[in-house]
Amino acid sequence: MMADKCYIKKEDKVKVIVGKDKGKIGKVLKVNRKKSRILIEKINIVKRHSKPTQQNRQGGIVEKEMPIQWSNVMVMCGKCVSPARVKMQRLEDGNKVRVCVKCGEALDT
Ligand SMILES: [Zn+2]
Question: What pLDDT is stored for residue 73 in this prediction?
C-alpha cells in the first residue's frame, strides 16, 4: 500500500467526500499525521451523554466532533470554489506551496 500524502493543514477548508457528512464543508481544527486523521469543525458530530458533575448537576447531551480519515475529504480551492486536487510547487525562493491542480492558485497564503 502506498503511503498517503497529506496536503491538509490546520485552518484549511475541506469538503467531505465520503460518509454520513458527505458534501459538507468545514474548517480543519486538528491534523493527526500519525493516525491519518483530521478533526473538522461541525463534521462527524457524535452525541454523548455526560454524567452529572459539580458544574452541571443535570448531566446531559454533549455534542462533540470526532476525527475522520483525511482520505475522506478534499481541500477546497477558494478560486474554483470546489474541492481541489493539490500538488506541491516550489517557489523561486525555495519554499514549497500547495497549489490547486485545476487553476494553479496557491492554497497557502
Ligand atoms: Zn482552483
Answer: 95
